[in-house]
Amino acid sequence: MKKLIVANWKLNPSTLKDAIKLSSSIKKTKKNTVVLCPPIIYLSNVKYPNLGAQDCFWEEKGAFTGQVSPLQLKSLKVKYCIVGHSERRTVGESDDQINDKVKLLLENQIIPILCVGYGTTVEQDDLEVVDVLKSQLETDLRDVDTSKVIVAYEPVWAISTGDPYATKKVATPDHTEKIAIFIKTKFGINKVLYGGSANLNNAQGFLEQPNIDGLLVGGASLVPNQFNEMINL
Ligand code: PGA
Q1: Residue to probe by mutation, ligand 1, list 4, 5, 6, 8, most atoms within 8 Å of CB
Q2: What's the CA-to-centroid distance between 70 and ligand 1, angstroms?
């Protein structure tokens, strides 16, 4: 079964030239489906079979300075859009706003990659994660055809701070498999990804699990040698 590997470049790289160079160094593969999510400003210049945005606004058009709408993303042939990333939630994004984004993306035939996750420590996550995921997903997916949404489970404590070589703790594949089953059975989701310091050393363990359908990769997606191996696992 093909898995879905999504590269979240975050606020990298710093120039258009480097963005084009990075995208052209990522191989095209038939083994898995690969989506590159560069910063929005580079989307019309980066060429790759599947492109995604890292965020969008919840209104289609109007007086909203600095925002980018799903309608505009559609005009750039963007197929996927990350929403609800923990780095957006920490700057104040609410589940109601995320819900509006998910709905508007679907209206524009863009597949939302909805990020959920919790916990500043492994211990906190173990105790409360299911309750928190349930509450996030109940609001994020309100009045939504959930079969069209991809969910990325990203424990907040596992997300790296930007150093592609940093070795941080990751969730175990077993724990993530259980969470994926919970998300699928409770919310009618078809695809669940794992994210949080996914790299070449730990990717295989997640990809082997039947209910983990792929990875959302930050830091390691900026290192072409490493990412090219990951997308061919
Ligand atoms: P990371 O980022 O792989 O650098 O931890 C993943 C993400 O935040 O989507």
Answers
A1: 8
A2: 23
